[in-house]
Amino acid sequence: MNATLHSAFRADQSLFADAAEEFIARNHFERPTLVIDRARVAAQYDALADGLGRASIHYAVKANPEPKIIRLLVEKGCHFDAASRGEIALCLAQGAAPADISFGNTVKKASDIAYAYGVGVDLFAADAEEELEKIAFNAPGARVYLRVIVENSAADWPLSRKFGCAPGALPGLLDHAVALGLRPVGLSFHVGSQTRRAAFWNPVLDQVAGLWHAAVAAGHDFDLLNIGGGFPAFYGEAIEAPRLYAAQVMQAVEARFGHVPHIMAEPGRGMVAEAGHIAAEVLLVSRKSPSDLHRWVYLDIGKFSGLAETMDEAIRYQFSTVHDGGETGPCILAGPSCDSADILYENRPVQLPEALRAGDRIVIRNCGAYTTTYASIGFNGFPPLDVIIL
Ligand SMILES: *Cc1c(COP(=O)(O)O)cnc(C)c1O
């Protein structure tokens, strides 16, 4: 049992040929650059699709909206979860069919809803009365699924109560949708991003299944369950391999929901994070006083130029340098901007080589998700994160 379990974990990245890493090693970059290996995205899609079985995959575009990634996923038969007119237009331009795009943001501009409906998108998320009214007015008769808040997320990047309705509000919203002439086809939720173990889904699925069965008993003709994202990436702590993880989630879903005609999943991070690394540069290594135990290491990339998910040190990236293998010591890691909040890791310092110096290359690993989309246009004159797609 232990041996099987162990081999199903992904804890050693060196097992994988890494084209992005090789490309970074062979090239010079003037500014922080994310290098994405499309073949890794394709492999990740295949593994998730295999594990998810009959569920369809709607890639959460915001994780990485590079047109070449969208095009690749269109070619693989992937569907898309879009959050705005811009993301819908991007997917259409890369060849996605309108029927394969869901408009999953529960807070939409009315004009974006009208645009989506006009181009043939027919599946919308909602979690509030006013949103249902906007959809009914701008996309009459559309299919909607209601997003519910789930509690007790064990995710590393849990989502707030910003999205979803409280369980008690669901029956009223479903009735309201029917009264407005919409077609409430099911429910959605998000287990929380970077949910490292499939077993962490169980308490969340229990909550949603209770709501689902109550709504069906009340006469709603549900045929769509949207299980959202949450599929993890490797950031140093062991995770289950994607195929096994997805298969376990599906098993847990089917045990609780029975046969649902359409199940959709919306991986973002899990699809693209491990496909890319960022090539960055050390700007300064210093100690605030000679007796300081920690060095301060300043990089040419920070919270405002792509590494926003270091907020509260929630996502802990891994680093590699040319000095790896030598002696290491604890470092506080900071970005280049003149904002004192631009510190990446301080509460839990990062072990970096003692030999590290200004001008050294530092590679930030598994950064393909939620980096380019978080980079500001040019805070303090630092250029936004560059991207190269292999
Ligand atoms: C961001 C988002 C996702 C993707 O979440 P991951 O944790 O990156 O997989 C899925 N669904 C919705 C509605 C989202 O907003």
According to CATH, the homologous superfamily of the largest domain is: Alanine racemase
| Uncertain residue segments | 1-15
CATH class of the largest domain: Alpha Beta
Distinct small molecules bound, one entry per kind? pyridoxal-5'-phosphate
Largest sheet: 8 strands, mixed
Count of extended strands: 18
Tell me the structural class: alpha/beta
What general outline do the C-alpha atoms trace?
elongated
Radius of gyration: 22 Å
Descriptive report:
The chain is of the alpha/beta class and 390 residues long. It folds into two domains: 39-269, TIM Barrel; 274-389, Lyase, Ornithine Decarboxylase, Chain A, domain 1 (Beta Barrel). 29% of the residues lie in helices and 23% in strands. It has helices at residues 2-8, 19-26, 38-52, 67-76, 85-93, 110-119, 129-138, 170-179, 202-217, 242-257, 269-272; strands at 9-10, 33-36, 56-60, 79-82, 101-103, 123-126, 143-147, 183-188, 224-226, 239-240, 262-265, 276-286, 295-299, 318-321, 328-334, 343-353, 361-365, 386-389. Strands 2, 12, 13, 14, 15, 16, 17 and 18 form an eight-stranded mixed beta sheet that branches. A hairpin with an 8-residue loop joins strand 15 and strand 16. Helix 3 packs parallel to helix 10 (242-257). The two termini are 38 Å apart. Mean pLDDT is 93; it is low at 1-15. Bound molecules: pyridoxal-5'-phosphate (PLP). Pyridoxal-5'-phosphate binds at residues 60, 62-63, 81, 104, 190, 193, 228-231, 266-270.
